[in-house]
Amino acid sequence: MIGTRGVPAAYGGFETAVEEVGRRLVERGHAVTVYTRGSDQREREYLGMRVVHLPALRQKQLETLSHTGLSALHAITRKAPDAAFVFNAANSPFVPLLRGRGIPVALHMDGLEWKRSKWGARGRAYYRWAEEFGVRSADALIADAPGIADYYTEEFGVPTELIRYGAPILEGAPVDGIRALDLNPGAYHLVVARFEPENHVLEIVEGYRASRATAPLVVVGSAPYAAEYTQRIRAAADGDPRIRLLGGVFDQDLLDALYVHARTYVHGHSVGGTNPSLLRAMGAGTAVIAWDVNFNRETLGELGWFFESASEAERHFTSLEDDSTQVPVLSAAVRARAEEFFRWDDVATAYEKLAARIASGNSVHPVARRARRAGTTA
């Protein structure tokens, strides 16, 4: 598994997928190697997975690419694995290197990264190019949401493997951690997101501030590359004691407790596929207020309140202030949906079957290698 920060998972969706899938493949008798960067732990094995630690350039545009390049070089100079999973379409330039060594590659395409505002014009252009290059290079393409799969079908006319993330099912969590933050169970709204415009943290904070809610708004997150946007969020929250900006929370037990004991989880993400933060809230049995985009509706199955502006968020915060019926009903419903449709065991089985298929020679490459974006000519 190549192209992520690796294990232990402490960052995002890719890393969680690598850990959850990798550990299950090991339990099923497979040998799994995970390439890792930046981990405080230097052990060569984690949950049965072999861990290879390699460096990366600590620069926004080059960190992922530099580490993946070193990982690919390391992989091709050792005994070839039966299959490789490369995560992030940006890493597609290294797919031919692996395939040239006879290693079949499934490329996880992520969620239309070129739409993210954190990248400048050149960064977005690169992601669009890398996306197309990945389509033409890999043996299989993984999409983590129906909307992403539809995009590749419509844009390139190539099939993808729809493999969604799993949801951690949280049976409960101690209240000590949230009590220490002066919070009460069931009496606060929670946001967990990087501070980036497409995650709409600013609109959530503005909407909440305009509401008559008394349950605090607890915001977990930060953004190392978005100082101006972060300042706008802080300015919107300034002077309102109901709004609590906690910054990053890296204690996973505390983060679980924040999800489990929240009244609602407010999800502003608008770019990407099936989002791990949303799944974590669903697995915790926490009712959701979500940005109105197809990815979120697909994940929730319409079991939530949706908004597209600060004013719509304000209406939800205000209407839920006195609600005593809808919140527990939707809390139970999203948890049941997570248990039924987002099981890590099922995700691991899908990865296992895909690895077996590409290892046996099954590949979309003969069909996809001449693919072009819709509207362009070969």
UniProtKB/TrEMBL annotation:
InterPro entries: Glyco_trans_4-like_N. It holds the Pfam family Glyco_trans_1_4. Residues 12-164 form the Glycosyltransferase subfamily 4-like N-terminal domain. This is DUF1972 domain-containing protein. Keywords: Glycosyltransferase, Transferase. The lineage of its organism: Bacteria, Bacillati, Actinomycetota, Actinomycetes, Micrococcales.
